[in-house]
Amino acid sequence: MFSDFRIRKNHDRLYDGILSVLGAVCCVFAILALALTYIALPAIVRDGSMSPTLSKSDLVIIESLGYEPKLGDIVACEGYGLDGVCLRRIAAVPGQTVNIDFVTGTVYVDGSIFNVAGIDNRTFDSDNGCDYPMTVPQGYYFVLCDNRADTEDSRNYSIGLIDREDIYGRAVFRLFPIAKARKL
């Protein structure tokens, strides 16, 4: 009878240990799920619109919780003419005036040249271009691709300005490919 008590006691300890481990694992998964849903979203680059900064199939982390869009940020956004969620760079924020000299390919924001280091900044008109100069209204953002030669962004009427509600967060880190992993 005494040996039955010891076996039952050891069995109860084993059962309690398994429940503790399962509880901890469930908590870790719940925290991870919340973090990936509300704080840092993984995203795969679908096309070459942000080349050379980002390439097709790169895996990036999008910071979303409490994010406020800033000039120069690469953002995950959705817009009327965009095919789902895409990555674009904020070239002008509400209240700023954008002007594009299509002869020289120069983008001006509030009279200053908007250049991004490491890319071909020449910007040319599309067939469905907007009228310039353009002042960005409150609640909207003017976005450009880094690969401006053959991509669609706010220069095109079918996309136009991006509503703040359609910006989901900022790309903060390229995770894959590992050889190119870096902060953005």
Main attributes of the structure:
12 strands, eight-stranded antiparallel sheet, 2 domains, alpha+beta, four-stranded antiparallel sheet, 29% strand, 184 residues, Umud Fragment, subunit A, 21% helix
CATH class assignment of the largest domain? Mainly Beta
Give unreliable regions as ranges: none
Strand content: 25-35%
Binned, the helix content reads 10-25%
Number of domains: 2
Q: What general form does the structure show? A: elongated
Mean pLDDT across the residues is 79
Amino-to-carboxy terminus distance = 67 Å
Looking at CATH, which topology of the largest domain would you report? Umud Fragment, subunit A
* Record field, number of beta strands: 12
Backbone CA Rg: 24 Å
Listing every helix as H and every strand as E from the N terminus to the C terminus, the arrangement reads HEEEEEEEEEEEE
* Structural class by sheet pairing and helices: alpha+beta
Architecture of the largest domain in CATH? Answer: Ribbon
CATH superfamily of the largest domain: Umud Fragment, subunit A
Largest sheet report: 8 strands, antiparallel
Number of helices, where a helix is a run of at least 4 consecutive DSSP H or I residues: 1
Would you kindly provide a written description of the structure presented here, covering whatever features stand out?
This protein is an alpha+beta fold and 184 residues long. The protein folds into two domains: 1-44; 45-183, Umud Fragment, subunit A (Ribbon). It is built from one helix and twelve strands. The chain has one helix at residues 2-39, and strands spanning 40-44, 59-63, 74-77, 86-92, 97-101, 106-109, 112-113, 134-135, 140-144, 162-163, 167-176, 182-183. A hairpin with a 2-residue loop joins strand 6 and strand 7 (112-113). The radius of gyration is 24 Å and the shape is elongated.
